[in-house]
Inverse folding.
């Protein structure tokens, strides 16, 4: 079986407003990657487009815009988890021997659908994601004594990281008191505890180890994949608000496949659409024991969300998972500029959809 | 690398009208398959939903409806070619070792989008698929002397086959003169030269060879896969209307991977959204020489479109490719009831999207 290398990546600026169509947004990241000339257009054997857009035939349109005539062109979607799902699909195409090179582009424009979780009648009228985040936050505070200040410190850290990332939506450091005094939307979540939907695109190039050998100086391998879907509806989640069970299973399987343990992780991109979700991710990924997530932020030895996470970068749904993989690849190959985590060898990507009803963990490494 | 077996299948009735949501339509085929008990719900490791629906998080919704908590749940779409693209994605997940079992469900309800090719400005106002089919038909008649009667005979054959298929939309045999005297829509295409969009669903279960070993009496293997995307726009197709170049490349690659030649094929499901497309498929798949497709229908030694094809079964976009794979599996395993092709060992599925801008060929065999 062929090992799979993340051979290249490119992320566009995530922005609140854009006049560009989703295809222009997507093609921006794709063509920026192709300009690096790791592969020629004629060498790209599959194009996977990750997006929640309701447009049709999108992967073929994108391929044509990029001047690629791939064997396989498909669109993959899975809400917030779309990008990481697309990476799994691309991994399958290469590891199975069907393709030697797969270009994955995730993109969203501001008018993409998928913002309201309107399919799920178990949510009643609480269809905005902030309602499930509120339940998680209140439960964590009640059960483990997690504080609003601890949640705010996640935001402060990720905004600080985003300040070093020119592609991030937010380019301004903030303080804990600014988070605490921002508009209270629910009890206990404030405006700055929440991420923002936005436009943006990110692209990664997966290559077989053989194809990467003469093209990529420091090959970064996908060494572990774990994914779990427990439901689509919130009702299934509410029986246990102490963790996102899908993340725990995804992490367990990814660690096992990569043959590493949580303490081996040097750098991680975590799903932080709301500040409480990063605290829960520390626990679900076994970085700390259950209930200890709130304190972990203060004395972590794992660099978390160096690109700024979703709180700092914004959340173009189909692009987020791809940009997480791009960031960890840049970190492990030592090309993360001002936000470089020194000496990192093993990295992790964690992504989820819709209250954690599904989750994905991908582990990358230099060997 | 794990070999991939089509371990089970189920197709629902394709119907013109339905009150069912796309999820009910999809779950119908999925639950019918699960009732065969080749696998338990707890053994299904991935659910891939093939559909052009604009609904969000569809694979996870379908999984929950079916009582499955899979590792991976994704939606794949690629217009008419969606179902075959989903099968390729599932193949990748199993052959790579990521999963041992993948349930693929394709479904469409009548209000699914994807009917108008509205993204493609190179079509001008000719956005309905019949316009490109008309160009192909006129070119074939002019260049090779293909006749309207030959095209009509494709329809007659496929309607005759559909008459033996209880799931087919059309349950009535027709004559060449009925096709010839049906309403003329373009010059030279009549109403009965065209397929109908409809509601419907089909499911196939892919298994690793190891997992299939004690569960499936006659394992049917996926032995060859070829796929090619040349463009999304018609402008790219019009430079050569003599063939769909994507089908030729897809067929070449699939034959090579399966290590078979066109003359080895016993039974084939071909993309016949319009009668001319089946005639061109004979040529593109190298069943006959270029220009000989019109005559092939009269003296073919390959059983074509035994389920009735798209002309006989109707065309629920996301379901079509899945139902083609289901049909060939049923034929090769000797379970095709009244439409059984005797002694068939090697089968082929051919599918395409949007004027043949992309195409897929999948070869299945008993060994």
């Amino acid at each position: 079986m062929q090992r799979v290398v993340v051979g290249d990546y490119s992320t566009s600026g995530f922005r609140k407003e854009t006049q560009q169509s989703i295809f222009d947004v997507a093609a921006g990241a794709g063509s920026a990657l192709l300009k690096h000339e790791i592969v020629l257009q004629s060498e790209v054997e599959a194009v996977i487009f990750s997006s929640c857009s309701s447009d049709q035939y999108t992967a073929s349109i994108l391929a044509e815009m990029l001047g690629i005539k791939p064997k396989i062109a498909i669109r993959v979607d899975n809400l917030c988890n779309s990008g990481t799902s697309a990476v799994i699909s691309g991994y399958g195409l290469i590891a199975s021997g069907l393709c030697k090179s797969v270009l994955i582009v995730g993109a969203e424009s501001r008018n993409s659908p998928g913002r309201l979780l309107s399919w799920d009648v178990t949510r009643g009228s609480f269809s905005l994601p902030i309602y499930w985040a509120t339940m998680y936050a209140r439960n964590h505070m009640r059960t483990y004594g997690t504080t609003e200040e601890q949640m705010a410190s996640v935001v402060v850290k990720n905004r600080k990281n985003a300040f070093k990332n020119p592609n991030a939506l937010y380019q301004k450091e903030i303080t804990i008191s600014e988070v605490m005094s921002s508009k209270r939307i629910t009890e206990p979540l404030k405006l700055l505890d929440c991420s923002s939907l936005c436009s943006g695109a990110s692209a990664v190039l997966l290559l077989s180890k053989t194809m990467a050998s003469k093209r990529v100086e420091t090959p970064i391998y996908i060494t572990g994949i774990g994914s779990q879907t427990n439901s689509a509806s919130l009702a299934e989640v509410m029986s246990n608000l102490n963790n996102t069970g899908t993340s725990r299973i995804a992490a367990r399987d990814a660690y096992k496949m990569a043959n590493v343990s949580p303490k081996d992780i040097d750098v991680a991109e975590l799903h932080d659409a709301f500040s409480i979700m990063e605290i829960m991710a520390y626990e679900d990924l076994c970085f700390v024991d259950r209930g200890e997530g709130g304190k972990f932020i203060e004395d972590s030895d794992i660099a978390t969300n160096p690109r700024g996470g979703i709180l700092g970068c914004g959340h173009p749904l189909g692009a987020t998972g791809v940009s997480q993989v791009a960031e960890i690849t840049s970190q492990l190959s030592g090309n993360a500029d001002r936000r470089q985590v020194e000496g990192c060898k093993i990295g992790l990507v964690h992504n989820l959809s819709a209250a954690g009803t599904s989750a994905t963990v991908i582990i990358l490494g230099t060997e």
Notes: The two ends of chain A are 16 Å apart (CA to CA).
